[in-house]
Amino acid sequence: MALANDVMHASELTVFTRRTQADIEARDGSLAAFFPNQTVDSDVAKYTILDGGLVPAAEYRSYDAESTIGSPQGGRNVAVQLPPVSQKNRIGELDQIRARGGNEQAELYVGRVAASTTEAVTARIEALRGTVLETGRVTIKENGFHADEDLGRSEDMTTSVANSWTTEAGTSLDDLIALAEKYEEKNGTLPGAMLASTQIISAFQRNKQVRDAIGGNATRNVATLTEINALLESYGLPGFTRFGRSVNIGGVNKKILSPDKVFLLPAPNTIELGQTVFGRTAEADSPEYGIIPADAPGLVAGINLEWDPYAYWVRVNGLALPVMTNPDASMVAQVLNVEG
Predict the structure, then answer these.
(1) What angle do CA 147, 150, 154 make, to 5 degrees?
(2) pLDDT tens digits, one per residue of 229-280
């Protein structure tokens, strides 16, 4: 099928797709805040997984004495093939007839289909970010592509609390402080963000230890989220960030992050944890797409024409993979019973 650049040129549709991707990730509170997008002019993600922990300190010396040799933070170099992720959607005969009204009307219809297709591709990448964050692994098993890469998070950074936070009399506040202290011991700093589901936040709001620490009305059964975040701030901790996004995979709605776990992370919009690496697709080099080399990496989009039956296909494609370069900058703790 040939490109139908007369409807909307592939270079323009690609720009539209990338802007739509950026809008979606900003609007929905995406995990891209912890795995910021990075483009590479390749089909391979090359990066170093740090060993974690603190950099060994230097030593004082006497004047004219030779400097001691340092032991820089270790790590291992990794090269991972970037997997393709794509979707195409059809604009059929009847759709085209109903969209009649000149090029402007046709472009508006194509734009709606392209936005929906971009959202589908972005959702799958977001789901993989969740898998990487929760499991510490890149795991894909779809359409003949299999990947299972351990990103090297320490075993003690995936943990659980002794008593579920669904128990009102539990020690939820003590548990969270202990988790933060463990994170600080590993990373040299307290977490900059804590992601939690509505279920976790609700359990924390009802916990007696938390309500007693806040004080005030002794008869109430629920603390407000504002009060909780102020309490956590008094301990030098970030407040809870509510995260409950779902994605439809294979017709089944699935939570991107398990609702029974809390996630301790660096501050958002940094590169302390990792990146989402976007590579250069095959069609980005095609003259028909009209994409300049400097803009080649990233999502690309085009419209293909099918003659029998007469239809257009809007296709969005990319090479994308979220990776953790500092896996121990993330801690995952199960705090609710599975049934909770």
Answers:
(1) 160
(2) 999 999 999 999 999 999 998 888 999 999 999 999 999 999 899 999 999 9
Enter the tokens of residue 171: 């020690």
CA-to-CA separations, 282 to 43, 56, 279, 293, 320, in angstroms, rounded: 9, 44, 10, 12, 13
Give residue 254's identity as a one-letter amino acid code. K
pTM: 0.88
Q: Which residues contact 159 (CB under 8 A, 6 or more apart)?
A: 179, 182, 331, 332, 333, 334
Is the separation of the CB atoms in 259 and 339 below 8 Å?
no
For 23, other C-beta atoms within 10 Å of its C-beta total: 14
* Residues 301-319 pLDDT 10s: 999 988 888 888 999 999 9
Q: How far is 137 from 337, CA to CA, in rounded Å?
A: 23
Structure tokens at 76: 């291992």
d(CA 56, CA 264): 24
Distances (CA, A) of 277 to 89, 122, 132, 157, 240: 25, 13, 13, 24, 27
Cα end-to-end distance, the chain, whole Å: 51
The dihedral built from the CA positions of residue 212, 214, 217 and 223, taken in this order, carries a sign that is: negative
